Amino acid sequence: MNFHREPITFVGQVNLKIQNLERSIAFYKEVIGFKVLEQTSRSAKFSADGKIALLSVEQPEHVVPKQGRTTGLYHFALLLPKRTDLANIVQHFAKIGLQFGSSDHLVSEALYLSDPDGNGIEIYVDRDPSEWNWKNKVVEMTVEPLNFPDLLSIGNEQSWKGLPIETTMGHIHLHVSELSKTEEFYIKGLGFEVVNQFGSQALFISDGKYHHHIGLNTWNGVGASAPPPNSVGLESFILMLSSEEKKNKIIAQLKGIGASVTEKSGSIITTDPSGNRIHLIAKE
Hints:
Elements: E1 10-17, H1 21-32, E2 35-39, E3 43-47, E4 53-58, E5 72-79, H2 83-96, E6 101-104, E7 108-114, E8 120-126, E9 134-135, E10 138-139, H3 148-152, E11 168-175, H4 180-189, E12 193-198, E13 202-206, E14 214-217, E15 233-241, H5 244-256, E16 261-264, E17 267-271, E18 277-282
Parallel strand pairs: 1-4, 5-8, 11-14, 15-18
Antiparallel strand pairs: 1-15, 2-3, 3-4, 5-11, 6-7, 7-8, 9-10, 12-13, 13-14, 16-17, 17-18
Protein name: Glyoxalase
GO molecular function, one term: lactoylglutathione lyase activity
Organism: Alkalihalobacillus alcalophilus ATCC 27647 = CGMCC 1.3604
């Protein structure tokens, strides 16, 4: 099953603020393997297939470095189509001497790194959904060491030519200030379901029984404040909705819980209780 197309609600694009546009373009092209889809003097959009933007970066006026202990981006996560693609990018990272983290989450195998501004990135591949273990509507996830010998046994260093064209924005993981109102916003407002919870500090939510489209945590501290508007970090992200009908239903749900909903240039924008901005886009 494809968890990143209609009728499922999923993250389509992540928009970041960065300090140096040329540095970011070089990183996302040469290290991550994106194609530049559009570029202006202060911004750029990146794509895997040369058609659909998955990531945008913008250098704000008077930009300041990423602020610690604030809400916003923990990481955005690029989903690769095949396990061999993950093996190939591991070999690419090793070849260029890039340091990165890794984990086996049972549902997926993942690499972790940051861009030059400290924006977190996950690159991962899913295990087949038939291998995911569900119990009482909760999917089992954990943090185990990645089996690199097994992974690299299927890789081909010469075959890395950037991100595969089928790469999608798999999920986004956010720092939030608390979980109670946050859960209400994402569940009652946006219509997601909780599929996993790590104690009192993290929630994982999804649509259509994916392991998670959005992660939410208070690891930067309960009560963490939003960063300044001109700070490096998350500007916003886009949620893709299957229809205008679904969008209108979600707007009504958001207004019903008192969430902010505004329209700007034809786009519906809402903000979660921690200040994370979300654009709601319906399929035409």
